[in-house]
Automatic annotation (TrEMBL):
InterPro entries: KR_dom (IPR057326), NAD(P)-bd_dom_sf (IPR036291), Peroxisomal_Beta-Oxidation (IPR051687), Sc_DH/Rdtase_CS (IPR020904), SDR_fam (IPR002347). Belongs to the short-chain dehydrogenases/reductases (SDR) family. The lineage of its organism: Bacteria, Pseudomonadati, Pseudomonadota, Betaproteobacteria, Burkholderiales. This is 3-hydroxyacyl-CoA dehydrogenase. Residues 9-205 form the Ketoreductase domain. It comes from Comamonas serinivorans. Gene3D superfamilies: NAD(P)-binding Rossmann-like Domain.
Length: 305
């Protein structure tokens, strides 16, 4: 029998008590990984604390013959994030991978968004991904191996209404991932992003007041979290050693490699620019290449296969 894809690798999955994270943890364990199942057991908006969800996933893994340990520390605090990494070291003696999946939502139209709603989402998604990655980085450097997967979103890569906090955090995570990939490639450490389309409680608040909305939600519900897991497991494997600094989207049975910003057009004037010549020359020259105010649904406008 061939060796499993991530045999004996110790991998932390944050936000793994349910949804996408749970499927990651189960799929990793099935492929031989020892999994730290991290989840504070909070609501979608971040309130509360319940050890039950993480332990339940651990119990599922152990019942299937795998190895796992539960952890309920918060990624939004630097010292707590360090404890999550320490949990892997204390239990399994090493750490080989981190999947930054923990997240909350505080959706609000921008002009109504409160400081708390902004801060809470940035703390969990962007700061949490930094805290977790930083806590693992020196261990990866010393052993000259390791892999990160950060969960981004088309809300950040493309755009969505009412999610300035979430979109800023998720696009920031793309920049964080690329920087980690550049800084740590010499130590054989890889860092990639996945933007998932999947039905979970994180998007369970989508309205279903009209037939059109109900049809949209029905399509999203077909996109189960288990569809995301194969790519995440593959990216944790040594067999993906040539994949670094990339951004992927998974939508049901489709996997997309996303573009990264590059120059589209340029204009120049030998004498330099004034505000007037920018108005008269530069902006009209660029206008034909402007990007529309697209939302994620405008770009991914066809039904998933």
């Amino acid at each position: 029998m061939s060796e499993k894809l991530v045999q004996d690798k110790v991998i932390i999955v944050t936000g793994a008590g349910g949804g996408i994270g749970r499927d990651f943890a189960l799929a990793l364990a099935k492929e031989g990984a020892k999994v730290v199942v991290n989840d504070i057991g909070a609501s979608v908006t971040g309130e509360g604390n319940d050890a039950g969800p993480a332990q339940k996933v651990v119990d599922e893994i152990k019942a299937a013959g795998g190895q796992a340990v539960a952890n309920t520390d918060s990624v939004a605090d630097a010292s707590a994030a360090a404890k999550i990494v320490q949990s892997a070291l204390d239990t399994f003696g090493r750490i080989d991978g981190v999947i930054n999946n923990a997240g909350i939502l505080r959706d609000r139209m921008f002009h109504k968004m409160s400081l708390d709603e902004w801060d809470a989402v940035l703390k969990v998604h962007l700061y949490g991904s930094y805290y977790m990655s930083r806590a693992a980085a020196n261990h990866f450097k010393e052993q000259e191996s390791g892999a990160f997967v950060h969960m981004t979103s088309t809300s950040g890569l493309i755009g969505n209404n009412g999610q300035a906090n979430y979109a800023a955090a998720k696009l920031g995570m793309m920049g964080l991932s690329k920087s980690i990939a550049l800084d740590m490639q010499r130590y054989n450490v890889r860092s990639n992003c996945i933007a998932p389309f999947a039905w979970s409680r994180m998007i369970g608040s989508i309205p279903t007041d009209t037939p059109e909305q109900q049809a949209r939600v029905a399509k999203i519900q077909q996109m189960t979290p288990a569809k995301i897991a194969p790519l995440a497991v593959a990216l944790m494997s040594d067999k993906a050693k040539d994949t670094n600094g990339q951004v992927f989207v998974v939508r049901n049975n489709e996997i997309f490699l996303m573009s990264q910003p590059r120059p589209v057009r340029s204009v120049q004037r030998s004498e330099g620019w004034t505000p007037e010549t920018v108005i008269e020359h530069a902006l009209p020259a660029f206008k034909g290449s402007y990007f529309g105010l697209d939302k994620s649904g405008d770009v991914f406008s066809w039904d998933p296969v």
